[in-house]
Write a sequence for this structure.
């Protein structure tokens, strides 16, 4: 099963997954108040549909994007709108949010299973849109748009991304184990929407239990529908789950720089997104709950939690028994995630995990000059020269770095991880991209 | 850096056995002066004092290893000044130097003290049971003058060298283990090879530069090292002088050698060829030091000419991103 990997670069960071990989997904009790940001997706912020003091039901749409690219947002609790005002946001500093006081008496909403097989594909796509599903792996690109590739694209393969190559994170792992059927049904729904037959679920070999359980379920399921779904183990190497690397590992097709997966006939979906698509089409349940890993050695209890979108980090931390020796909070994985400075930011649709790191897990050393060891070039999965980019930026010539392919850099952090001088190469790469854009 | 220094310790031990305590004393003086000069320079220039990164220590060890064991004790101090102040700190500090500091130190000493640097050889313990006092005498040791094998080879030819060591197999044996006159840390091909292999195994260096250097030097030695074309003895050339030390420890310096494998092979080949050219056709019996310094000059160009192969670069006409 080796051989399923990408051709260049890559690293093997400490996984730290043992902290949470054996913990079953646990439903966190809903908080008394939720703060639901109006920007949790790629595209325009949503416009609120509700007013202050208005009563809202769990799962009711509270904001929509009318004409532009975007996604619908739903209330995650039943209660009363307390305010609509700017609040701290994990990536945007501050952003308008709908604040809802939960009605403690209201029972949780129950969703009846529906037979998605009877629904035509256009309506399935509409269900995905109504449910406000976005790509849950990262940028939050609206899924209904991703699932309607232009007719010129000859898509023949769906890839489900179960690599979960970032250290610490175990949400997709747990979802594959505990929501196996939902993942498979979700895959079938996507295949039906796309009108294709073939789906590969790519899983890193450090999750043999997930591969086993998927393979077994798929074997039992075979012949039930006219689809061809397989689970495929892949070499454990970061960034195996990055879109271009993943597509190459599983299909040996290379998406050219500036291109998109459908240019080589592939659509990639994240495991969490697939489950969300299943819930949207088979339960008619909108996306307002998120399974995320809360880990790191500074939090008292690590967990894979199912939380209401809009739950503040502070509430999650209280639920998990507080923190000790907390040095750094990271949203997402340690490689590509971003630092958070406050606890009053909410969990959003795209939160895949939050890490509470202590001094043993954070590196606070200063960086030194480049010693030209070239390790960053060996580690870069795109075959770039991060050290040159950094030197150019330091010399004020960041706009001249296109010759090193800087625009192909997807900020995976492999280069910075291996650099013995601890140079912040990803920051340099970002500065270089800004400089290139500025100079046209 | 510390690992690299550690792998050189067996070489130092053998050198103490071979040439006496002078080896140790000279090495310690060299290391201490490099560290002190670096710390002073960095303080004066307002940089962060970074002697704990181990790079000055390594420079000190390497510089001591390429000077003869019989030189006066103050020599490494002067060398350290050239290596650290001129070749490293004045160039901008670690990472910005063009030339290998240890070799600049050695080249400086060769220019300033041509006699000491080319004659202060001590015959190894094994070959001449020299009185112990020689090793402890404070000044330069000119009581006994021994020529290095390369010197003998250059002046008198292969036959004289075979005479000196008895037989060809004895040459191979003594050269390989390291019982021969030479610089403090250059004599043992075996120990340097073991240290180098360890560094390769640990991923600190790769095989490209050392192999390219040794193969090309061997080939050149065979080609032009003998009385007629194609009759030279590659083994004697490879295992004499500083070639092994240079190939594994000097050429592989990150800062002054190219980064990409392909460029490294060119770099190594250049060092090997230049070394033998200097030895055979040039005025000095030994050429490793100058060969490496010359190739160091080419490093920035090699780094520019060779770019990594990219994964899936954009097509000539990029596909319109129709997001
Ligand atoms: S962050 Fe960019 S430059 Fe660094 S390894 Fe990743 S793709 Fe390469
Ligand atoms: S890894 Fe760091 S020190 Fe090494 S070449 Fe790259 S930037 Fe320079």
């Amino acid at each position: 099963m080796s051989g399923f990997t990408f051709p260049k670069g890559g690293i093997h960071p400490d996984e730290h997954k043992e902290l949470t990989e054996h913990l079953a997904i646990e439903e966190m009790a809903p908080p008394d108040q939720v703060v639901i940001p109006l920007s949790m997706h790629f595209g325009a912020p949503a416009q609120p549909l509700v007013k202050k003091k208005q009563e809202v039901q769990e799962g009711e749409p509270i904001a929509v994007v009318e004409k532009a690219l975007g996604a619908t947002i739903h209330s995650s609790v039943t209660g009363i709108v307390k305010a609509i005002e700017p609040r701290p946001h994990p990536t945007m500093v501050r952003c308008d949010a709908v604040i809802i006081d939960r009605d403690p008496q209201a029972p949780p909403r129950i969703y009846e299973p529906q037979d998605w097989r009877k629904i035509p594909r256009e309506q399935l796509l509409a269900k995905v849109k109504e449910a406000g599903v976005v790509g849950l792996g990262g940028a939050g690109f609206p899924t209904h748009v991703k699932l309607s590739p232009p007719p010129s694209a000859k898509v023949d393969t769906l890839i489900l991304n179960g690599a979960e190559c970032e250290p610490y994170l175990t949400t997709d792992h747990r979802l594959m184990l505990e929501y196996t059927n939902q993942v498979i049904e979700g895959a079938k729904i996507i295949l039906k929407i796309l009108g294709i037959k073939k789906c590969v679920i790519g899983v890193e070999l450090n999750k043999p239990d997930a591969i086993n359980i998927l393979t077994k379920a798929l074997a039992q399921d075979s012949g039930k529908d006219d689809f061809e779904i397989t689970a495929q183990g892949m070499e454990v190497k970061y960034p195996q789950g990055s879109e271009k690397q993943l597509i190459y590992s599983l299909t040996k097709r290379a998406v050219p720089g500036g291109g998109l997966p459908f240019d080589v006939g592939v659509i990639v979906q994240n495991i969490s997104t697939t489950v969300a698509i299943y819930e949207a089409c088979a339960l008619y349940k909108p996306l307002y709950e998120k399974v995320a890993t809360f880990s790191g050695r500074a939090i008292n209890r690590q967990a894979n939690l199912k939380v209401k979108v809009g739950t503040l980090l502070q509430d999650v931390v209280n639920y998990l028994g507080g923190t000790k020796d907390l040095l750094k909070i990271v949203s997402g994985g340690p490689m590509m995630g971003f630092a958070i400075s406050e606890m009053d930011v909410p969990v959003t649709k795209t939160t895949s995990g939050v890490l509470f790191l202590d001094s043993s897990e954070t590196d606070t050393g200063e960086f030194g000059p480049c010693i030209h060891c070239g390790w960053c070039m060996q580690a870069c999965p795109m075959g770039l020269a991060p050290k040159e980019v950094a030197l150019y930026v330091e010399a004020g010539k960041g706009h001249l770095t296109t010759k090193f392919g800087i625009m192909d850099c997807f900020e995976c952090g492999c280069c910075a991880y291996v650099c013995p001088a601890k140079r912040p190469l990803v920051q340099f790469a970002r500065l270089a991209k800004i400089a290139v854009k500025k100079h046209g | 850096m510390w690992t690299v220094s550690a792998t050189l310790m067996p070489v130092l031990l053998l050198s103490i056995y071979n040439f006496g305590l002078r080896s140790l004393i000279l090495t310690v003086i060299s290391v201490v002066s490099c560290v002190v000069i670096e710390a002073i320079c960095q303080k004066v220039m307002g940089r962060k004092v970074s002697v704990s990164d181990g790079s000055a220590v390594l420079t000190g060890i390497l510089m001591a290893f390429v000077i003869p064991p019989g030189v006066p004790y103050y020599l490494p101090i002067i060398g350290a000044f050239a290596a650290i102040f001129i070749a490293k700190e004045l160039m901008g500090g670690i990472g910005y130097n063009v030339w290998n500091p240890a070799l600049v130190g050695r080249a400086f000493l060769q220019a300033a003290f041509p006699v000491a640097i080319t004659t202060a050889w001590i015959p190894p313990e094994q070959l001449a049971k020299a009185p112990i006092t020689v090793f402890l005498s404070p000044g330069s040791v000119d009581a006994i003058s021994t020529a290095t094998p390369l010197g003998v080879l250059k002046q008198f030819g292969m036959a004289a060298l075979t005479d000196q060591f008895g037989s060809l197999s004895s040459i191979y044996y003594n050269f390989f283990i390291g019982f021969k006159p030479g610089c403090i840390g250059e004599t043992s091909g075996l120990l340097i090879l073991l240290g180098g292999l360890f560094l390769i195994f640990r991923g600190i260096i790769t095989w490209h530069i050392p192999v390219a250097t040794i193969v090309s030097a061997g080939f050149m030695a065979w080609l032009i090292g003998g009385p007629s074309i194609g009759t030279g003895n590659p083994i004697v050339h490879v295992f004499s002088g500083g070639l092994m030390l240079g190939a594994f420890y000097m050429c592989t310096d990150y800062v002054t050698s190219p980064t990409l494998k392909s460029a490294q092979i060119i770099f190594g080949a250049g060092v090997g060829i230049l070394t033998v050219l200097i030895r055979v056709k040039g005025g000095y019996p030994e050429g490793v030091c100058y060969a490496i310094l010359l190739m160091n000059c080419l490093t920035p160009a090699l780094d520019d000419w060779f770019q990594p192969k990219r994964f899936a670069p954009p097509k000539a006409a990029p596909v319109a991103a129709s997001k």
About this structure: The mean pLDDT of chain A is 91. The longest helix of chain A spans residues 180-194.
